[in-house]
## 1
Amino acid sequence: MSTVPLIPETAPFTAEQRAWLNGFLAGIFSRSAASNVGRPLADAPVLAPLTILYGTQTGTAESLAKQAAKEAGKRGFAATVLDMAEVSADQLPNHANLLLITSTYGEGEPPDAAKPLHSALSNGSAPSLSSLRYSVCALGDTNYTLFCQAGKDFDAHLEKLGATRITPRTDCDVDYEEPFTVWLDTALSALGSASGAGASLATSTTSAEPAVESYSKKNPYSAPVLTVRNLNAPGSAKEVNHVEFDLTGSGLVYEAGDALGVIPQNCADLVSAVIQALGCDGEEAVPTPVGELPLRTALTQHYDLGKPAPALLELLNVAGSVSAPTTPHVLDALLAAATKPAPGAFVGALKKIQPRLYSISSSPKAHPDQVHLTVGAVRYELNGLPRKGVCSTFLAERALAHGTAAVYVHSNKAFRPPADPTAPMIMVGPGTGIAPFRAFLEERAATAAPGKNWLFFGDQRASTDFLYRDELTALQASGVLTRLDLAFSRDQKEKIYVQNRMLENAAELYAWLEAGACFYVCGDASRMAKDVDVALHQVVELAGKKSPEEAAAYIQSLKTTKRYQRDVY
Ligand SMILES: Cc1cc2nc3c(=O)[nH]c(=O)nc-3n(C[C@H](O)[C@H](O)[C@H](O)COP(=O)(O)OP(=O)(O)OC[C@H]3O[C@@H](n4cnc5c(N)ncnc54)[C@H](O)[C@@H]3O)c2cc1C
Ligand SMILES: NC(=O)c1ccc[n+]([C@@H]2O[C@H](COP(=O)([O-])OP(=O)(O)OC[C@H]3O[C@@H](n4cnc5c(N)ncnc54)[C@H](OP(=O)(O)O)[C@@H]3O)[C@@H](O)[C@H]2O)c1
Ligand SMILES: Cc1cc2nc3c(=O)[nH]c(=O)nc-3n(C[C@H](O)[C@H](O)[C@H](O)COP(=O)(O)O)c2cc1C
């Protein structure tokens, strides 16, 4: 937690000097890990206290919490931004005004760091919160069944514990900027009138993107594509591409652990099939978020042709005929429709194309002015037709020829190599989960960090799927990679996975943890990350001679001290 002092009006400066100093101080403090905006210097008016609590897995809620703090500071609040990992339920009665921003992960679960507070608020152990005023902003994605569930839970638990909901919860879908801005404005106004803050300072407008960043999700950088290289050998059942972008002159900066947002373009063949199914020629002018464009351009650049929105199924009157057992795509729905809509009405019922996040696989220290990704191409069959993941195949097939791709940096402060260069690092990253660990290892090499490094990697077959084999072997030879344990699942009759290797090496793994190692997991969330978590508990039980409860407490303390971090998808 850090503090951003505001120069009070009573200080001996002109208004211009004060504005400059406030901007200067805000600039300095906005670069710190967390913010405390608006605390006055001595003799300044007392500001209304406000706590902004965030729960995040990949950094969005944290970044919005910091924007909320800046806005609250302008409106006369002394805002403190806190990660849910830093707050216990017992401490909540000490807070008068609370804005809570959280995402949802897993199957309707809170982010990892928010889980202890979530369970403390729900298990009957939390104190009364009758003096707390609050509002919740929930981040989620309507593609998941339990949309914004963690935010809904926090909202319900706070109410049940006697806290006063000052404005209704807002549930944000992937386009969270506008609803977040409206929620923040409404919640700050309500808290302001209840606490006396905000009256004289409520003159600013909010922006859902950090002011210091010139390129962002809303204003992506058109990055030249330097390389797209298949990392699998011929005969592989997988297709993972190493992709390099040039950032020269962009001013974009990132750290190992961050993700890159990529805004894809739809495949020309799919766009043509949709245009044909509509009975159009593609030249028809249709509305888009950036103004009227020909239908073909609009469908290529602006609209999602994947899973249709309920509005499209209604427009096409096919809601019953194209539902389960398999999720249809926009083209399936269109082909099933008895009558075809006008192109304008059709695009009006489509969702906007969304960026995809990729864990960055380069360290900026090893590759100045470049950013690298490790992208698994998504290809499958549905209803007898071949289908392609939009972004992964845009990068695999078209980005290089296209020349550029629209990208932005998605900061993830919750996933970083150890701050202490001497701390050991254990990384579990099968498949594309290797991505951030290539960056972590490059970072450790570039900074000559003396800490030991242990990587568990796995994929289907050693001969075709040993991603970055040459680089990893060289890192082993140079001593940067202390241990490399491999699990090729299909090289033998029975499956061998990374968690099998963890268990085989339980004593040494536990010894590394006891020596202060940080434990990292990246890759598949639905199966691998869960099984690795189970295996970690077993390692601590077996090698640490602990009961299941003691092992769970040991692992919880790794999480609390940020020594167990996950980047899973
Ligand atoms: C923080 C984060 C980091 C990530 N890092 C990486 C990374 O480093 N590397 C990487 O490759 N990916 C990564 N991903 C995943 C990435 O963002 C995309 O989700 C992935 O590339 C697929 O996007 P797409 O546009 O190609 O596919 P989409 O067009 O989004 O299609 C994917 C959808 O297709 C459907 N689908 C897929 N397979 C099947 C099937 N067999 N049968 C039926 N339906 C199916 C599912 O509905 C699935 O959701 C990350 C995700 C997150 C959130
Ligand atoms: N949510 C999203 O947006 C999104 C989008 C794209 C991909 N994904 C996920 O990302 C994953 C990454 O794909 P990838 O191709 O890089 O790797 P992957 O499918 O995770 O495969 C890598 C290795 O992990 C093995 N594996 C399978 N199940 C496992 C388990 N329960 N525990 C440990 N290892 C296991 C695989 O073995 P076998 O194959 O031999 O079983 C393979 O050897 C995909 O599985 C997919 O679920 C998510
Ligand atoms: C693996 C995974 C699981 C998710 N599960 C859910 C979910 O169950 N419900 C939901 O509404 N959103 C879900 N989301 C969407 C996130 O909540 C959403 O992207 C959010 O903006 C992320 O915010 P964060 O960066 O602060 O963690 C999921 C996202 C991922 C990658």
## 2
Amino acid sequence: MSEQHVAAARRDVTDYELLFDCVHCGLCAEACPTYVATRREMDSPRGRIYLMKALAEGRIELDADAARHLDLCLGCRGCETACPSGVKYGRLIEGARVFVERDYRRGTFDKLRRAAVSAVFPYPSRLRALLMPLRIMDRLGLRNAVRVMLPSAARQWLDLLPRDGTNSAETRWPAPGAIAEDAPTVVVHHGCVAQVLADSENINSEGLLAAAGYHVLRMAVTECCGALDLHAGNRQRAREFARANVLALSKLNPDAIISAASGCSTTIAEYGEILEDDALAHEAEAIASKVKDLSSLLLQRPLQFPARFECVATYHDACHLAHGLGVREGPRALLRSIPGLKLVEMEQSDLCCGSAGSYNLTEPAMARELARRKGDNIVATGAQYVVLANPGCEFQIAAELQRRGSSMRVMHLADFLALAMTGGANQTQ
Ligand code: SF4
Ligand code: SF4
């Protein structure tokens, strides 16, 4: 096709110029969970980049096959870490998702499933209301009886929800001792799904930070960060959420911002880019620059663990923490600092577990396949605890281990450190 024809047929698929950064070397393939699972080129980063380019140049149509290969991408960004050419794959796939949502007609079931996720999950009050029957069911001990009557798709959704509609690793923190007036300030962004299903991770993050000598500031109301919408191709609403967060966080003006959900941290760290053409661009850039992770803050002001915690633990790298923020060593260093703890590494610790935001709700088959692989690697370590830093991974891996009848405990880093800080060794004996 001539250059003139290409220009005439050009479609607004993604950041077209960025597609040319890819030199098609294929070095990213083995870092891509969907390629590892299917061995199909079109389910590899390079294959998807070819696909986006062909769509952008009008050489192929956005049919069911093309949409399928793009939908199957987890957005985990394992390919970005592996790519020697610095391809901004995350940005490319986010653009392509907007294109798919705009121009592709999904089947009814798929459309309803995605609409349900989009209507409920970013809104904590809606999610709480939806979970009320589950809480009652769990209190009456009826979950297993109800579960067997459900179709398999609904069963998989149910398995992802913690018992009683929330995880229960919350610790009662004593009031922090006197904190120096000039100590740094930090906000823990409570997330949308996390504040409902995994609030212990927020409370324990705040407790640990206060114990380490930080002033913890709280947002009056925490709105979704926009990550779910970015993954779902709804960039417009993601920008609205981003604006609300930039305004709320700017008012508090903390020195650092963290989130217990690594996908949220990565999204907030990209607010400068997401709102680059907005009236709040300057404030968004300032907020983005303050994003840190729990481990880096706690390593700067080390905690004193009061007792030994004799146990074997392994660490799973949540995608957005490892590939988005480049944080790998900090959580491991913190775990190694717990007296008595032995840290063992699992194979492919940074290969996605299949959770990936709402991916395990919209693509349950591939999510399950990746959970199986992750489960095999975890079980092979013989550890008693799997520690990670993202609630989505926690639910996904816990469901997999439960299906296997494993007694291993899956815990968020904040919950695990809180356990170690408050005599965890005694509690678990
Ligand atoms: S984001 Fe993850 S699933 Fe998607 S192409 Fe990259 S490595 Fe593969
Ligand atoms: S994305 Fe990077 S690693 Fe993958 S084929 Fe392109 S240039 Fe190579």
